[in-house]
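Our consortium's second objective concerns turning raw sequence data into structural hypotheses that experimental partners can test. To show how far this objective has progressed, the report includes one record in full. It was chosen at random from the queue rather than selected for favorable results. The single chain below, 380 residues long, was entered without modification.
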Amino acid sequence: MEGKNMKIAAVAVVAVIVIAAAAVVIGGGVTESEKKGLYKLDAEFVEVSMGQCSATPSVILTLETVYEAYYGDYTDKEYTIDDVKADEAFWNEFCAWTPLVTDNGDGTFDVVSQTKAKGSETVTIPKVASMVTLGTMYSETLYFLLCEQYGVEPYSDAGLSNDSVGEAMKKHIAGGMQYSYYEQNEGVYMTAYIDESEYMDLGVTSVQKVDPEVLTKVLADAKADNGDVIYMASGTRINDDKYYQANTNPAKSTGTYYAFFSPSTFGDVCSCIDAIGKLMGFDETVINGLIDDFQIRLYTVYKSVEENAESEKPKVYWESNTGKAVSSSMAKTIMEFLGFDTKLMDGAEHDMESLLSEKPSLLCFYTNDDRPMDEKMRTV
């Protein structure tokens, strides 16, 4: 990429406004006493992409979006990877990672595959030609690696219209998760390059709903078309033997391969970039370039939050499309890294009165939350 501190463009322009100012515009020049609903908080407001709130390279986009919405400019944007490594406390807590793959020197790798049902197991896999995936982490990490390789910014206009990236995406992604999921959840890195008619659709979005017969056929067809194929999916939800067998037997019976990862930390993001990159045949310079870029930008946010730290942690209220507070561990990790008190991220419903009492300083919603603003802000 053109420099390690390059700002990766978000999938869409994120609306970042000051609630106090919004109240004046929406209310037509209301006074302080006339503000309604959550506008009374004078809190900051931010929207983030749901797909970029998990342990994938794109989580840095969410960190940067929220940081800029609440804190504004960065205190320093000129860090190097040597600066990051020199800060041992930061490195050990947020950047240190353990490889999931070991090169056997004979064209194969020993891969640590992780599921709740079986824990960690080692599977031997060669470099593969294509992947069948359940979960966006694998396909999106591949996309970021290709953008690194061809020098374009993920989710930028160039990153969504690059012929080399497109050709590689079509070559390396045979199919997997229900295509409509990408259409409905801002998976533009897929829909920009891969046509539904050329995609081998499993028809499901969860490993717990996999039809072994469908998976067997998709893997067999992908192998016939492309050669060596790997099936990759989230190991977190493969939590009993029934799901384990349904997701591994098709690979075993077709002579294809499987690997399941369960990333939950920023360090895990680096482990998965490394594993997916090596299995898909990327050069070490591309893999390390993407990891370095992620770590430098993570450090830039961290140091700027440190410089802007308040005497008392500001509270954040993050609401899902259902009207309940977000409570996932990764969402809390994101907000705690950004210096927020996450006590209101408890999965519960919070009415206007309770939120006005708690006084969160930041209100966060998803970009694909199509509820009217009046509903989100409790003015109706």
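The partners drew two points from this record. The chain has a mean pLDDT of 91. The radius of gyration is 22 Å. Both points have been shared with the crystallography group to help prioritize constructs.
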